[in-house]
Amino acid sequence: xxxxxxxxxxxxxxxxxxxxxxxxxxxxxxxxxxxxxxxxxxxxxxxxxxxxxxxxxxxxxxxxxxxxxxxxxxxxxxxxxxxxxxxxxxxxxxxxxxxxxxxxxxxxxxxxxxxxxxxxxxxxxxxxxxxxxxxxxxxxxxxxxxxxxxxxxxxxxxxxxxxxxxxxxxxxxxxxxxxxxxxxxxxxxxxxxxxxxxxxxxxxxxxxxxxxxxxxxxxxxxxxxxxxxxxxxxxxxxxxxxxxxxxxxxxxxxxxxxxxxxxxxxxxxxxxxxxxxxxxxxxxxxxxxxxxxxxxxxxxxxxxxxxxxxxxxxxxx
Length: 317
What we know:
Elements: E1 4-9, H1 24-33, E2 37-44, E3 47-52, E4 55-59, E5 66-69, H2 77-87, E6 92-93, H3 96-103, H4 105-111, E7 120-121, H5 127-134, E8 137-141, E9 151-153, E10 162-164, E11 171-178, E12 188-197, E13 203-205, E14 209-213, E15 225-228, H6 235-253, E16 262-269, E17 275-281, H7 288-294, H8 296-316
Parallel strand pairs: 1-2, 1-5, 5-6
Antiparallel strand pairs: 2-3, 3-4, 7-11, 8-9, 8-11, 10-11, 12-13, 12-14, 12-16, 14-15, 16-17
Helix pairs in contact: 1-8, 7-8
């Protein structure tokens, strides 16, 4: 059986790259090599690497069987465009169409309008009117990320049509989203539920991670604490949310021509513990690494398999 080559697109690494055994993708490369799958990394069309004798070594670009896209296309568009041209129509996970949908929060919600999302207002001329009706809302960047540029607004607060982007120094259109009041005792509560495609084609849901904070925005990059979701929510609430995550994945899959390999669905829970979809991430981090720090014996193997699974799935195409 011929060996498969999977290329991972990643952001440039400042300084000397750690040994493969010290990073998740490096450990995945060492593990999958034994399974007949060669892992390569690329952060630009000129910067390719592979594991040789237990270390990362520069290598020439070469034909690969699939691409695993973990590169921020918005923060470094020229690098990203060059990588796209280099691989042509090579299968990609996640495919470009899905990444475009998930990057645009308004487009995502409109496409999945049959699912429960918090109501939004996209016309700046109607921001004040809707805010008055809702009483409490969030002003958010349309394409943002990492919690940047999101703020809870109260009556009388300014509601600009443009705001800070997730890209440092940038700006982008804003939209208004009705606030969902969390269960009692939380300033904010958001659950990231990572779901991944197995080589068999089935979706596998990994342990959901709750992000809790005393502040209005529950984002790990903004200081929220990551906890096992079943520590803070009832089994009934999580069972309902699980079905919602699976329906979300299936609905998105029906809208694209390529193969989705993973999704990170962010969920809010209201005061009655009913789930609402906040957003969907096409280059997700499951936050399992934070739980691994708390309980490495339990979550360490789960986090390792979460790195391997999309690569195995792409190799099986």
